[in-house]
Amino acid sequence: MLLRVLGKSLIRRKSRIAIAIVAVIMGASITGALVTTSLNIKEKVGLEFRQYGANILLVPRSESIPVSIGDVDYGSVTEQRYLEESDLPKIKEISWAKNVLGYAPYLYSVVTVENQKTVLSGVWFDEIKRISPWWDVRGSWIDDRNDTNSAIIGIGVSEILGVGIGDAFSVSYNDTQNVSTHDVNVVGIVSTGSSEDNQVFVTLHLAQSLTNLLGKVSTVQVSALCIGCPVEVIAQEIEEKIPYAQAKSVKQMVRAEMEILGKIEELMLLVAAVALLASALGVMTTMTTSVVERTKEIGMMKAIGAENKKIASLFLLEALVIGLIGGLFGYVVGLGVAQFIGMSVFGSSVSPRISVLPLVLGISIAVVVLASAFPVRRAISIEPAKVLRGE
Amino acid sequence: MDYSPNTRALDGVTLDVKKGEWATIMGPSGGGKTTLLNIIGCLEKPTKGRVVVEDTEVTRLREKELTRFRRENFGFIFQQFHLVSYLTALENVMLSQYFLYGRKFDYDDAQAALERVGLSHRMDHIPSHMSGGEQQRVSIARALVCEPQILLADEPTGNLDQKTGSVILELLKSLHSEGHTIMLVTHDLSIGKMGERIIQLVDGKITEDSSN
């Protein structure tokens, strides 16, 4: 019976109900749009930030040895240490493993090329490609990790040595006892606008062979997806897995990333709150008008024995229907608004998130039910005798 | 019964209505007739005094208990009918059942109540598609469907022409003969004479209490 009364009452006052639903659609669509945009943009911003490089740098812990002769203190020397290549898979064993986008080991050494001292970096090019997508490589990448014949040189090295793609040169490594020399062909020239421009890159495997540091790496750049995950915690977990390593989060960059995302979120929260408040006011006005219009009906119902809870449930169910319909349509409209915001403000499209639907529905229903509290209170406080007397 | 410090709607009213009796309350406008009916029907509480219905002192009941007592013991018939405009005749009758029985209301009983007032052919019509007399008969069916002991009628024919009013009064007569206690408010002496007792209320005081 309650549903019958509810249904007929909604149909009879369809224009008023439509106004309330429109009010909810407005609030729900803006909320849905902002949540959808926020989720998409956060991900996009996160990806964009990660394109600036890794956000964790793994280095071996160094120990300083104090040097003194007699009473004369000569400061300290730092022992050259390396990370073990075989320990690197442990990075993917941490609890936040799914947030680790990739890691790229580097083995640095100073070599001689065409009588010029330069830095040789042994790397995994496939990982570099993944976590450092801003590397602008002319020519080709080196896809085979065991390639011992190819090199990619920085644009600075290319200019100084007068070497280009297709040219070959010798790389000499001189340790205290031996000199190792190896010929490589230039397959690509890299330009990053940074220190990479002045380095020679070969596979990690070749660099280790040349320097006689098999299985060793100097540093590892780790790119962690830092949306909803603290980079410091990831760094700490990596340190726990590889205790002799020190994982440094690139704090400044992470902080800036978090701050920008935080500001976007705050702004969106504020806009959504204002939109929902406006919706609540719209619904409250409509529901209050509805109560005023139905005063005689409510009075009669109370006179013939309707309890307050039955009167309240009539209006709250009405609010529930308004919230559900408004929330559903609001979600759909919100997708369009999200696309518009994405394209016009951030210059990228926004993909729909079905997970936003229950959130929008829940918020819409909560707002409508809260907005109905005052009208419902007014309805249950109606005194039947006064109403029936015509007061 | 005071509405404000300067307005006393009822003053020193003492009344005893027997079970199955038809008592008509008469008197000039503003004399307190409707207030008396509302107090008896638990729609209003007197500022002073006691009201006892069926051995229950209703003036001591809390609001929730009053609501329950009201729906279990009284049937109301209003001058303005007070039907829900968007519900059919049958649904208006079922509404009363719903408030008393919740979901366990009986469709057949609601139909029977409408048949009893001669409206079985108008069950699916909404009030605006019915005449005043038909609407009042729906209102009587709504009052009867839960089989209350006491029927309270406030100017039940006040909005009807004489012919239609007679139909309603005949209906009330038959209900009275079935054993219902009826308390009816009217200005019309001819209607008042239909009952067993006339109570005259003037300025909130009983000035006459006579048997027909």
Give your account of this protein's structure.
Chain A is 52% helix and 23% strand. With 391 residues, chain A is of the alpha+beta class. Chain A folds into two domains: 178 residues, no CATH class; 187 residues, no CATH class. In chain A, the strands form three sheets. Chain A has a six-stranded mixed beta barrel with strand order 5-6-11-8-10-9. The model of chain A has no long low-confidence stretch (mean pLDDT 85). Chain B has a single domain, classed as P-loop containing nucleotide triphosphate hydrolases (Rossmann fold), CATH 3.40.50.300. In chain B, helix 3 packs across helix 4 and helix 3 packs parallel to helix 5. The model of chain B has no long low-confidence stretch (mean pLDDT 85). The chains are: A alpha+beta (391), B alpha/beta (212). Chains A and B meet through helix 1, helix 8 and helix 11 of A and helix 2 and helix 3 of B.
What string gives the helices and strands of chain A in order? HHEEEEEEHEEHEEEHEEHEHHHHH
Q: Give the integer mean of the pLDDT values of chain A.
A: 85
**C-alpha geometry of chain A:** rod-shaped
Spatial strand order of the main sheet of chain A: 5-6-11-8-10-9
CATH architecture call of chain B = 3-Layer(aba) Sandwich
How would you name the CATH homologous superfamily of chain B?
P-loop containing nucleotide triphosphate hydrolases
Q: How much β-strand is present in the residues of chain A?
A: 15-25%
Percent of residues in β-strands of chain B: 15-25%
The low-pLDDT segments of chain B are none
**Describe the biggest sheet of chain A?**
6 strands, mixed, barrel
**What is the number of E strands of chain B?**
10
Distance between the termini of chain B: 28 Å
Overall pLDDT level of chain B: 85
Task: Give me the number of helical elements of chain B.
Answer: 7
H/E element sequence of chain B:
EEEHEEHEHHHEHEHEE
Number of spatially distinct domains of chain B? 1
Rg of chain A (C-alpha, Å): 34 Å
Number of domains of chain A: 2
Termini of chain A, distance in Å?
29 Å
How are the strands of the biggest sheet of chain B laid out side by side? Answer: 6-7-8-3-9-10
Gyration radius of chain B (Cα, Å) is 17 Å
